[in-house]
Amino acid sequence: MANILIVEDEGDIAELYRMFLESAGHKIVGTYADPAEALDRVGMLAAPDLVILDERLGARSGSSYLASYRDVFRNARLLLLSADPDAVRWAETLGFDEAKRKPVTLRHLIENIAGLLNRPPRGG
Asked: What is the CATH number of domain 3-16+25-117?
């Protein structure tokens, strides 16, 4: 299974993703509300195969961290999750491997992750 990093500022949602993905056999290498904090702690994280990145992170934008995440996590697939249909529409153009509109069912999230893991990352 995959090493997954979750960047989601809503604690309940992050915890739901964590529990569900772990029960599906994945290893969660970290959950962060602040995308910069995950980058600051990169030396302490196991290399993720997948990063789940929320678009709206308080005053921050997940998309604004895309280049940094690509540089630091070169072999990871980057999945954007957003309630904003425009962000989802433009995510792959910006360089995300995939984007899904929230709310996403947990079953669809697992299916999307399986498909993503079978493709090489865009940055790699």
From this structure: 3.40.50.2300
Cα 102 to Cα 97: distance, rounded to the nearest angstrom = 16
User: Which tokens go with 50?
Assistant: 């997948």
Task: Answer yes or no: is pLDDT of 124 > 70.
Answer: no
Q: What are 110's two structure tokens?
A: 């697992």
pLDDT in tens, 71-91: 999 999 999 999 999 999 998
CA distances 88 to 29, 72, 94, Å, are 25, 23, 10
Distance of CA 52 to the CA centre of its chain: 1
- CB-CB contact of 63 with 55 (8 Å): yes
Could you tell me whether strands 77-82 and 98-101 are parallel, antiparallel, or unpaired per DSSP bridges?
parallel
| β-pair partners for 98 | 79
